[in-house]
Amino acid sequence: MELTQTLTRILVVEDEIVVSEDLQQRLRALGFAIAGAADTAAEAIALATTERPDLALMDVMLHGRPEGIEAAEYLRSQLNIPVIYLTAHSDRATLQKARLTDPSGYIVKPFDDAQLMIAIELAPRRHELDLKTRREAPSPMAERLLPYAFARSKQILIAHQREGVNEVWVCASTPEGALSEVSRNFGTLQVVSLPEEALRQWINTTYSRQSGSAAQVVGEVEGEVDLSRLMQEIPEVEDLLESEDDAPIIRMINALLTQAAREGASDIHIESFEHESVVRIRVDGVLRDVVRPKKALHAALISRIKIMAQLDIAEKRLPQDGRITLRVGGRPVDVRVSIIPAGHGERAVLRLLEKDAQWLNLETLGMAQDTLVSFDRLIKRPHGIVLVTGPTGSGKTTTLYAALSRLEVGQANVMTVEDPIEYDLVGISQIQVNERIGMSFARALRSLLRQDPDIIMIGEIRDLETATIAVQASLTGHLVLATLHTNDAALAITRLEDMGVEPYLLSTSLLGVLAQRLVRQLCPVCKESWTEPDGRTGCSPVGCSECGQSGYSGRLGIYELLVVDDAMRALIRDRASDTEVLRQARANGLRTLREDAGRWLEAGFTSLEEVVRATGSD
Ligand SMILES: [Zn+2]
Fold first, then answer.
1. How do the residues of the chain divide into helix, strand and coil, expressed in percent and rounded to 5?
2. Which residues contact 157 (CB under 8 A, 6 or more apart)?
3. What is the crossing angle of helices 210-221 and 247-262, to 10°?
4. What is the whole-number distance in angstroms between the Cα of residue 532 and the centre of ligand 1?
5. How much distance in Å is there from the Cα of 518 to the middle of ligand 1?
6. How many angstroms is it from 527 CA to the middle of ligand 1?
7. Cα 500 from Cα 522, distance rounded (Å)
8. What are the pLDDT digits (tens) for 29-64?
9. CA pair distance 47, 51, nearest whole angstrom
10. Angstrom distances, CA of residue 426 to CA of 15, 404, 478, 572
11. Would you list the DSSP string of 425-468?
């Protein structure tokens, strides 16, 4: 990445004069330049327009109103200026609104110089968002002037219309004919030539803003939407993006997102096979087919998703990741988009992230009382490592968040390193891992440790470097909560040793491991109870209109908690096998996942086949 040698120029937007002055002084001392200081949204916009700072530090609430958010929205979307929010005790609604403006970071007051420095270091600079052109971003009108298909195929964009003159952006590959066609329709042109890549990015960005109006379409199609019917309405064309009207595709994607959000789906998968494309959604951990569009539509669907997520639609050979933020039924939904090349066309996975973390609590997830008491004891220790393990989709992160919410975070400095940040936690500093700018788990952790947090949550330990830092942190007086991808609790220990963590360090730092799974809960309306001739009883799924014929509705947690005591420490130090570790753990009273599921089976809350599915066939 290109780095500027000049000082980073920062715009400070803060309504409390004492705070503002203190902040400016600290920024100068840290080696930054002040591009200006404003105390209202209007002033911030005016200063940003004339001064073009590299970055803005902005108070969310200005004079008691969330005006900072409006100014930030303008700076971010119109001027390409990254914004870091300063927040104090903002309410959840305000923070959610702030989140929608795509900020480059948050700093929670009061903060020290290290926090300030890290937040600024992590944020991009304006020139990085500017795509190396110093041009003003295309006006909000731009997307309505030329049809997207035309702009894309001819590589041309009307960026601004000023006093009867159209500022047209082109690149070396724009055909002559396109210019004369635009001129015939729009009149006087002022032609600006851009590097090809920059123009392509601008076209993507400009037309992706239609996803803003996509949110309105979602509102319109809310209620009952028949996806299959919608699919048939889509006209027969080779490539819908080539047609002037891609509204049917937009409608379809919106209907899909709406349906997914309404059913509480966690993700949407769009895959292409030899003869058809398949769209599936995952509800309560299980994937199911929603619609099978014609193969011809696949490319158009993927392209539209790329545009909404601000990805490069021309890139089809490399994986890409992006994000769509939209509102469904008035609630903000964050969608993480991952596109990967596959045999019969690209494959898209859209993860829907629920932003309201209020339901996070271990009792609702159904942890047994004795497990909860032991787990609580672990997470309230002043230092050491507590691991939560399980495969993807087993609710590990939710448990960690729930654990954090049980702690008296008001009195402790809690920081997290995550990829992605799945919930906004008020009062907790969350750092997003970003490999693209070199912000790996390990690097983020190292910078975070400089701020001496009391409690650290690590999204996932994936490598030795992260594991080592976690161990060191726990040995130097921090409580570390982390997830690890293993099937059971005992395997977590051998997994870390296999990564290269020294057994004696692990034995002194590890407090406990919680393995978990989520099992689907039987639909209470239609479940059927049975009694075997030998007297065993249980319940099985049937399916009704209440549960979408699946026989299940909602999920329950099953847990296996391994607590490290002196005997276990000795075993870890001596590199005991996972069988020996498990034997010792069971002697200490550990219940395996299957055994813990027994309480749900006895109560008729889940079925035997569901427990087998969730825990594997061992
Ligand atoms: Zn049912």
1. 40, 25, 35
2. 138, 142, 146, 151, 168, 169, 170, 199, 202, 203, 206
3. 60
4. 23
5. 19
6. 7
7. 42
8. 888 899 999 999 889 988 888 888 989 999 988 887
9. 6
10. 22, 11, 21, 37
11. -TT-EEEE-BGGGTB-HHHHHHHHHTT--SEEEES---SHHHHH
Q: What is the pLDDT of residue 226?
A: 47
Close Cβ partners of 273 (under 8 Å, ≥ 6 residues apart): 295, 344
Burial of 133 (0-12, 13-18, 19+ CB in 10 A): middle
What is the Cα–Cα distance from 521 to 556, expressed in whole angstroms?
Answer: 6
Distance 525 CA to ligand 1 centre (A): 5
CA of 260 to the centre of ligand 1 (A): 19
Q: Calculate how far, in angstroms, residue 540's C-alpha sits from the geometric centre of ligand 1.
A: 11
Q: How far is the CA of 259 from the centre of ligand 1 (A)?
A: 19
Four-residue CA torsion sign, 476, 482, 484, 490? positive
How many residues in the chain? 618
CA of 528 to the centre of ligand 1 (A): 10
Distance 541 CA to ligand 1 centre (A): 8
553 C-alpha to center of ligand 1: Å? 7
Token match 């990254």: residue?
Answer: 82
pLDDT at 282: 84
Concatenated DSSP letters of 119-135: HHHHS--HHHHTTT--P
User: In 3D, which of 243, 250, 315, 300 has the Cα closest to residue 270?
Assistant: 300
Dist. CA 522 → ligand 1 center (Å): 8
- Give residue 526 CA to ligand 1 midpoint distance, Å: 4
The whole-number pLDDT of residue 146 equals 79
The token pair that represents 589 in the structure block = 């009273």
Cα 604 to ligand 1 centre (Å): 14
**CA 331 to ligand 1 center in whole angstroms:** 27
Cα separation, 206 vs 522, in Å, equals: 47
Q: How far apart are CA 155 and CA 149, in angstroms?
A: 10
Q: How far is the CA of 13 from the centre of ligand 1 (A)?
A: 54
CA distances (Å), 428 to each of 416, 457, 512, 562, 567, in order? 8, 10, 23, 28, 36
How many angstroms separate the alpha carbon of residue 533 from the centre of ligand 1?
26
Of 230, 212, 209, the residue nearest 221 (C-alpha): 230
Dihedral of the CA atoms 254, 260, 263, 265 (nearest 10)? Answer: -160
Rounded Cα–Cα distance for residues 425 and 533 (Å): 52
pLDDT tens for each residue of 131-178? 434 466 787 777 777 777 778 878 899 888 887 788 898 888 888 888
Centroid of ligand 1 to alpha carbon of 543 (angstroms): 4
Q: Does 488 have pLDDT greater than 80? A: yes
